[in-house]
């Protein structure tokens, strides 16, 4: 299977996100990337948009519902939101949407900071393997993988996708 080029996806996503925000009359969204890959995608997306908006970062390690099964990520860092959440239009960015559990954890954390006016979900890849009813508003590409396959994003510069086979 050939994976898409992240730089090309980011360019397409910038165009789609601009249209999405204009359609909803959102002029000053707040951008938040989910560590780590979502932050890399968010940085590239802000650059593609020509935006100098501050970027918030979330580390959802303590908010995941599978924390007891998977343990704590070895490099937990605090979340950093350089703006208010209350009443703001947020653009939440992640690299790969798989089960939906990371997004659910991010939403839980965001609502601990306040009640946003709206949340637009942007993902580089949607693997359509959802365990939860979560889907992105803007997506770079949708892939169908075998159960033993995963996609890993490396970066931040350049952003590269790698197909991993867990059966090997």
From TrEMBL:
CDD domains: PRTases_typeI
InterPro entries given in the database record: PRTase-like, PRTase_dom, PyrR_bifunctional
Span of domain Phosphoribosyltransferase: 20-139
Gene3D superfamilies referenced in this protein's UniProt entry, alphabetically: 3.40.50.2020
Example of a GO MF term: glycosyltransferase activity
Stretches of the chain forming a coiled coil according to its record: none
Presence of keyword Transferase: yes
Pfam families in the cross-refs: Pribosyltran
PANTHER family found in the cross-reference section: BIFUNCTIONAL PROTEIN PYRR
Protein name according to UniProt: Bifunctional pyr operon transcriptional regulator/uracil phosphoribosyltransferase
Organism: Pseudomonas fluorescens
């Amino acid at each position: 299977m050939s994976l898409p080029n992240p730089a090309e996806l980011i360019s397409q996503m910038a165009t789609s996100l601009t249209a999405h925000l204009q359609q909803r009359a959102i002029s000053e969204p707040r951008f938040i990337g989910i560590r780590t890959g979502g932050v890399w995608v968010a940085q590239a997306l802000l650059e593609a948009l020509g935006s100098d908006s501050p970027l918030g970062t979330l580390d959802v390690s303590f908010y995941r519902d599978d924390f007891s099964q998977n343990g704590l990520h070895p490099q937990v860092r605090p979340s950093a939101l350089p703006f208010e959440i209350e009443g703001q239009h947020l653009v939440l960015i992640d690299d790969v949407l798989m089960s939906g559990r990371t997004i659910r954890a991010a939403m839980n954390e965001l609502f601990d900071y306040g009640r946003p006016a709206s949340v637009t979900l942007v993902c580089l890849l949607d693997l359509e393997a959802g365990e939860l009813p979560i889907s992105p508003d803007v997506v770079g590409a949708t892939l169908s993988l075998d159960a033993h396959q995963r996609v890993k994003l490396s970066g931040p510069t350049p952003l590269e996708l790698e197909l991993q086979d867990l059966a090997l």
